[in-house]
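Worked example 3 (structure in, sequence out).
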């Protein structure tokens, strides 16, 4: 009977062999060469596949990404101001990290950097400081985002919008598609938005 480390090593050997047969280039040594495991880090995100047998994957920010964004927020709060370039850089990092945070509070926190990114102001107000501290707190207390497959009850809904200021007919519109396999429903809508 194989022990878990032996299974992991055999799985790694099988994956490496398959990639080589397919002609894929990948890191076989150095810092990008990571041992085969149930977790994988890529671009500041951790993918936890330990419950993949239950059709579930957990996604969260890496500890280094959390510390990097938190440290930048602390630095800005200590300085009491932020330049346009610094605001744009921090806002981009916060937006990427926010993708792994549940809820909409993170987006509201990121919104406080809008004025700074457009060079409308540079001094951090008390409300800005509160939102930045809240974002750092959300990052540190974050529960991994769970992605699961539920075949029997899955409903897929896709929405989109359009806006073309120079269009003659349809300047702004909304649309959506809904697919429910259980009820065998395929619905869609589209509408034109008029000026208020």
């Amino acid at each position: 009977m194989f022990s878990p480390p032996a299974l992991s090593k055999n799985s790694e050997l099988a994956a490496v062999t398959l990639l080589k047969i397919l002609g894929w280039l990948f890191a076989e040594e150095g810092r990008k060469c990571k041992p085969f495991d149930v977790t994988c880090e890529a671009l500041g995100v951790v993918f936890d596949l330990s419950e993949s047998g239950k059709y579930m994957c957990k996604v969260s920010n890496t500890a280094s990404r959390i510390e990097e964004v938190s440290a930048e927020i602390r630095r800005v709060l200590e300085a009491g101001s932020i330049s346009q370039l610094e605001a744009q850089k921090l806002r981009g990092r916060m937006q990427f990290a926010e993708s792994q945070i549940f809820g909409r509070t993170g987006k509201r926190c990121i919104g406080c950097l809008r004025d700074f990114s457009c060079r409308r102001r540079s001094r951090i107000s008390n409300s800005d400081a509160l939102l930045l501290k809240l974002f750092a707190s959300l990052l540190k207390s974050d529960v991994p985002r769970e992605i699961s497959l539920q075949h029997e009850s899955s409903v897929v809904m896709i929405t989109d919008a359009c806006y073309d200021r120079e269009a003659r007919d349809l300047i702004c519109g909304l649309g959506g598609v809904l697919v429910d396999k259980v009820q065998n429903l395929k619905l869609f809508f589209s509408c034109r938005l008029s000026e208020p």
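Notes: The chain is about 40% helix and 25% strand. The radius of gyration is 23 Å.
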